[in-house]
Design goal:
This protein is of the alpha+beta class. The chain folds into two domains: about 1-110, Diaminopimelate Epimerase, Chain A, domain 1; about 110-215, Diaminopimelate Epimerase, Chain A, domain 1 (Roll). The chain is about 15% helix and about 40% strand. It has helices at about 25-30, 70-80, 175-185; strands spanning about 1-5, 5-10, 40-45, 50-60, 65, 85-90, 95-100, 105-110, 115, 120-125, 130-135, 145-155, 155-165, 165-170, 195, 200-205, 210-215. A hairpin with a 6-residue loop joins strand 3 and strand 4 (about 50-60).
Length: about 230
């Protein structure tokens, strides 16, 4: 599936077990020339308190802890399979709610916390760590997701993304949320923001206690992968 060009392989382990998720297994599937290819591998697991749990693996084999666009794709998958009005998806530190909206799939992402602010960046924690640059005048850290605000016209924001463990991607849902939370913090308001990334647009609304990420998702194909 893909959301604004941010693409995912989704393995559904709700009904049958999967092989051990080793680095080699993850890399074999996510490599674009010798495998299927994707930014992140998403694995759905049973959960007693939610409709599913979701684990997130970057294409370098490392594990991530939040993925807004992935949650919207999984939300579409679970909503289509269940016919429910909303579904719950458990992550490491939060459970989010996905539902259909007039503009695609909306996910209530939970809380964004401002960790640090400097003249050039704001650090945001939203289940994973982001550094949002308003002026890229310093070295990018390798242990955070990076969002660079390249332009802003009123509440329309232009954003470039470098994801930890995946590199440059066409879009990042949690990054769009982090950028919005940083803008709200700096500008002192909570107006909805249209976030335009190289792969397309999403809308972020709500407030810092519960951001709502909304946009289109698409199933590209489904099938079987030979190990």
């Amino acid at each position: 599936m893909q959301a604004q060009g941010n693409d995912f392989v989704i393995l559904n382990s709700l009904s049958q077990p999967l092989p051990e998720l080793t680095d080699a297994f993850v890399k074999k599937i996510t490599e674009r020339r010798y495998g299927i290819g994707c930014d992140q591998l998403l694995v759905l697991l049973p959960n007693d308190d939610a409709d599913a749990s979701m684990r997130i693996f970057n294409n370098d084999g490392s594990e991530a802890f939040n993925c807004g666009n992935g949650l919207r794709c999984v939300g579409e998958l679970l909503l289509s399979e269940s016919g429910a009005e909303s579904v719950s998806i458990a992550l490491k530190d939060r459970t989010v709610i996905a539902r259909r909206s007039d503009h695609g799939i909306a996910v209530e992402m939970g809380t964004a916390i401002v960790k640090e602010q400097t003249e050039s960046h704001v650090d945001i924690e939203i289940g994973n760590e982001h550094r949002v640059f308003f002026e890229a005048t310093e070295t990018f850290p390798e242990d955070k997701n990076i969002e660079i605000v390249t332009g802003q016209v009123a509440d329309h924001v232009y954003l470039d993304v470098i994801e930890r463990g995946a590199g440059r991607t066409l879009a990042c849902g949690s990054g769009a949320c982090a950028a919005t939370a940083a803008i709200w913090h700096v500008e002192g308001h909570t107006r909805p923001q249209t976030i335009e990334m190289p792969g397309g647009e999403v809308t972020v609304s709500g407030n810092s206690e519960n951001l709502v990420l909304e946009g289109l998702v698409k199933t590209v194909f489904s099938g079987h992968f030979r190990l």
